[in-house]
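Batch job 17 of 40 flagged for manual review because the log was empty.
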Amino acid sequence: MAKERKTMFDQDIDREIAERMKDEYGVAGSDRELDPRWRASFKIVEEIKPEHGPGEVEGPEQSPSQEYREALINLLEMQADSELAGALGYVPCVKMAPTVEEFLAASMIVKDEFRHARVVYKLLEYLGIDVNARLQEHDFTLRVEEDQTDLGTRRVAADKRVNIFYYPIDTWYDFVAFNFCMDRGAGHQLEDVLESSYKPWARVMEGIFKEEKFHIAHGDSWVRQLAQNPETHDKMQEALNKWYPRTMNIFGRPRSSKNKLYRRLGLKKRDNDEVRQAFAAEVKERCQAFGLQVSEWKPEWERLPEEAFVTG
């Protein structure tokens, strides 16, 4: 008889967590340094001295405090929920693909996002979270009616996904603009995690970050192609006008207390608005090269969430 599967991931509960993590990630403890290829590229404007350095907390059993554990779980739940909701939102995009090659590319992006969700939820399981119960509690396929709702910065359900994943992706132009904007925004956010004080998170982020770069490159390639074709330029501009402001809303409020907590614990590196401005500068540079205009974003600072929603 096959062994009963009691959790989202097959695990031998009699083995130490560090040993199980070694099977998954190939490492346990501090047997090697983080891959220098994925070191963060940004410069920090406002330094907050962290209490824990990169990779210092080697696993759930070494969590230095309840405050650290709660902050880490909150960030991981935000990322995992966003990864899963994003993957489910991408599924309908596969059939929109205009070529055989793009059927494969879109399918690979969907696969990547589901893998990201699995990896981050697994980190939560190692921290004692009942992931299957969480999946039953929330509807990650939930989407709003595109023509009836402008969410601004609001969430519409109790899960922790970034609110941009409540919008449907209805056309290939939307899919391309989403790759170009949202995957780039996620990449800028997650770059902080490459040097996270929680080593298991930093470790898995190496692979996730690499795959996000593929998604961003996919968006860049198609934005260039559609923007430079007179027959498709206006539709590409229209899609950019829709998704760019929505992405600008995901980064959180400047100088928030939650962000300062994460930075003090070594779980983040930068202020929310530093990440936003790095994203905006890159989008502006790309759009100038592609012959597109960056749409205006008017921040409603008092309505922005205090913390950025970690995505992927």
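Reviewer: the log was empty due to a logging misconfiguration, but the result itself is present. The radius of gyration is 19 Å. Unflagging and moving on to job 18.
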